[in-house]
Amino acid sequence: MTDTDRDLAEQLVTRARSEGLNLVGENGLLKGLVKLVLEGALEAEMSDHLGYEKGDTAGAGSGNSRNGTSRKRVLTDVGPVEIDVPRDRAGTFTPQVVPKHARRVEGFDEAIVSLYAKGLTTGEIQAHLAEIYDVDVSRDLISRATDKITEELEAWRQRPLDRVYAVVMIDAIVLKIRDGAVANRPVYIAVGINLDGERDVLGMWVGTGGEGAKQWMAWLAELKNRGIEDVLIACCDGLKGLPDSIANIWPLADVQLCVVHMVRNSLKYASTKHWSQIAKELRQVYTAASPDAAEQRFAEFEEIWGARYPALIGVWRRSWEHFVMFLRFPPEIRKIVYTTNMIESLNSRFRQATRRRGHFPNEEAALKVLYLVIRDRQPNRRNPTGRTYNWKEAINTLAGFYGDRVIDNQ
Question: Which domain of life does the UniProt lineage start with (predicted)?
Answer without folding.
Answer: Bacteria
